[in-house]
Amino acid sequence: MNKHITVLCADDSAAISAALALLVDDERDMRSVGTVAHTCEILPAIRKHRPAIAVIDLTMDGECPLPAIRQVTQECPETRAIVFSGYDDEPTIRKAMDAGAAGFVSKRAGLATLIGVIRDVAEGKPVVRSM
Fold first, then answer.
1. Angle 40-6-63 (CA atoms, 0-180°, nearest 5)?
2. Residue 19 neighbours by CB distance under 10 Å
3. Looking at the predicted structure, is the pLDDT value of residue 45 above 90?
4. What is the strand order of the sheet 53-56 is part of?
């Protein structure tokens, strides 16, 4: 049996989270384990599902998820965070990576890029893809 890359999707847009989960489930080597819409739900969902990857938007419900990313890297080191954001300026990318994100993908980079970054980060490669 193949081992799937398990992915949790965190975005305050229910449509984006659902679309990301469907995109992940459409890949032969990936499986979505859930979606969350609020920053405060990220860590409990990761504790519950123990995904390999958490794809996290940077502007969730008006609250910055960087502290949650820091906490994930400390409490659940087997889960790697990928920031998926519409903000892709250098200071934003640096803040995300300094918080412990293993990857960063601009929402302008496209979904195929995100899928590739999920695979790379699951293999332990830190990746930044912006436009």
1. 20
2. 15
3. yes
4. 30-36, 5-10, 53-56, 80-85, 103-106, 127-129
Mean pLDDT along residues 91-103: 95
C-alpha to C-alpha distance for 65 and 83, rounded to whole angstroms: 10
pLDDT of 11 above 70: yes
Q: Which helix (H) or strand (E) holds 22?
A: helix 14-25
Is residue 73 within a helix (H) or strand (E), and if so which, with residue range? helix 66-75
In DSSP terms, which residues pair with 8 in a beta bridge? 34, 54
pLDDT greater than 90 at residue 3: no
Are 127 and 117 in contact by the 8 Å Cβ rule? The answer is yes
Q: Is the pTM of this model over 0.90?
A: yes
Closest CA to 64 of 30, 118, 101, 20: 101
Distance separating alpha carbons of residues 51 and 46, to the nearest angstrom: 6
| DSSP string of 82-117, one letter each residue | EEEES---HHHHHHHHHTT-SEEEEGGG-HHHHHHH
Label residue 112 exposed, middle or buried (CB < 10 Å: 0-12, 13-18, 19+).
exposed
Beta-carbon neighbour count of residue 128 at 10 Å?
17
